[in-house]
């Protein structure tokens, strides 16, 4: 999901509670905090020696013990508006960072209204060979 799509979904019904659903169907606890929204630019070489660049918007979620804390779509939307100053554009993909046992990064697969809530379905990110013609490993 792009930043523009996330912003549009949040602005549709600002009073709606928001939930993020992990790939295994478990919701992130409803009292999550948005601790970071940032622009990440990574420059690297793939295994074939090709220089690459990746850019995205990182949305970091964190859960504390304050179970009464609940963010609405409107509040998250206002956080996005403030942080837009660090984003070069709103066509960046959004990646959600969340920690259970270890820090994991997810893509937002979809947004839907479920029983008055705005639910964002997260999907796992994985690694892959970016130069299968160069690496010489079968099954790449």
Structural class: alpha/beta
| Poorly predicted regions | none
**Silhouette:** globular
CA gyration radius, whole angstroms: 17 Å
Helix/strand order = HEEEHEEEH
Please indicate the count of domains.
1
Helix content: 10-25%
The side-by-side strand order for the widest beta sheet comes to: 1-6-5-4-3-2
**Could you state the oligomeric state of the chains shown?**
single chain
Strand proportion, as a percent range, falls in: 35-45%
Q: How many DSSP helices?
A: 3
Mean pLDDT: 94
Spatial separation of the terminal alpha carbons: 26 Å
Main sheet: strands, sense, barrel: 6 strands, mixed
How many distinct beta strands?
Answer: 6
Protein architecture, described:
Helices cover 18% and strands 41% of the residues. By secondary structure, the chain is of the alpha/beta class. It has one domain (3-127). Strands 1-6-5-4-3-2 form a six-stranded mixed β-sheet. Strand 5 (103-114) and strand 6 form a beta hairpin. The protein starts with a helix and ends in a 5-residue tail after the last helix.
Summarize the model shown.
The chain is α/β, with parallel strands linked by helices.
List keywords for this structure.
alpha/beta, 6 strands
Q: How is this fold's topology laid out?
A:
Blueprint: H1 3-12, E1 18-21, E2 32-45, E3 51-63, H2 73-83, E4 94-99, E5 103-114, E6 117-124, H3 132-135
Parallel strand pairs: 1-6, 3-4
Antiparallel strand pairs: 2-3, 4-5, 5-6
